[in-house]
Amino acid sequence: MTTVLRGITWEHERGYGSVAAAAEAYRAVAPDVEVVWEYRSLLAFGDQGLDELVEGHDLLVIDHPHIPFAAERGLLLPLDGQGHDDELAVLATQSVGASHASYQHRGRQWGLATDAAAQVAAWRPDLLDAPPRTWDEVLALAAEGRVLWPAKPVDAFSSLVTIAASHGSEPMREPGVFLRRDAALEVLGIMRRLAELTPDDNLGLNPIDVADRLAEGDRFAYSPLLFGYTNYSRAGFREHRLAYVDIPAGSAGVRGSLLGGAGIAVSAHTRHPEAAIAHAFWLDSAAVQEGVYFDGGGQPGNAVAWESDRTNELALDFFRGTRATLESAYVRPRHPDYPDLQNEIGPLITAALAGRLTDDELIARLDEATERHLED
């Protein structure tokens, strides 16, 4: 009798093609298990509550900031203590930066880092001799009309965090304070200048929108902060290939990029816990990540795939070119109410960049929301 596992991921070749290809390959490993994947939009991936999804699915590809809420509400099964602890220990050593640890909460492991990502920089090697490496160089290129920047609310939020942390001030580390005023003014100065020098509609774009524009024509050549998509570095995916590199250095160096990525988790409501957990560990194993998962369009979360000559050759050194950024990435607060905080303040940041809020008004509202959402 065939066991059918139902999974939910997000709508993109990186999110869906990867796991669908792996599911097909899994039939040779476990002939009595069929894994069927559905997908939701990228917006829903970041915003939709997991409590709406766990009832009808065995496997979920999720964003790590949702882990504390899901763990404390009993929505997911812990993956430690389930007969796979040796594999879990291996995956911990194969983590790209803090990706593996970002799926932990209160000493338990609630997901596996299937996909590793952070804000990085993208450029067109056929249009530039080399990408900018400092913010002065970024702004100079932007003044020439060559730069795009995704500043939709969630991405504007991510950029604020990344720029602040790369300049030595990590947001949301003090009770009731999003970012100290002097640091906030420095970061907002950079962001406002960048907004002035990029097309107005960038305030409504996400990283996929920007990557698509960069890969077309010959007007735009660079974006300083966007979540990387290795698909755009591969031959034939778009008209032109993009290369991805580390973020522009701040005063603290190449560090502090907001950690993203995606992990696979198992619903607490699954009727097939052993089969679902076994598939999750198989999916995250080094051989699968470097092989069928990557070949299906995935962006591996396993460091073995990031170090692979094959994956780097096929993706214009995407993995080696951004590894330093991933290794020193910023991990968002581990608080059950954190996703609500991000959803609330992202639109405020974009509104400020559009001129609808002053810096002082924005800083006050960021602090108020931080205190309200992240209080103990």
TrEMBL record:
Cellular component terms (Gene Ontology): cell envelope
The organism's place on the tree of life at top rank: Bacteria
Alphabetized UniProt keyword annotations: Signal, Transport
UniProt KW Signal keyword: yes
Protein name stated in the entry: Extracellular solute-binding protein
Annotated family: Belongs to the bacterial solute-binding protein 1 family.
Subcellular location: Cell envelope
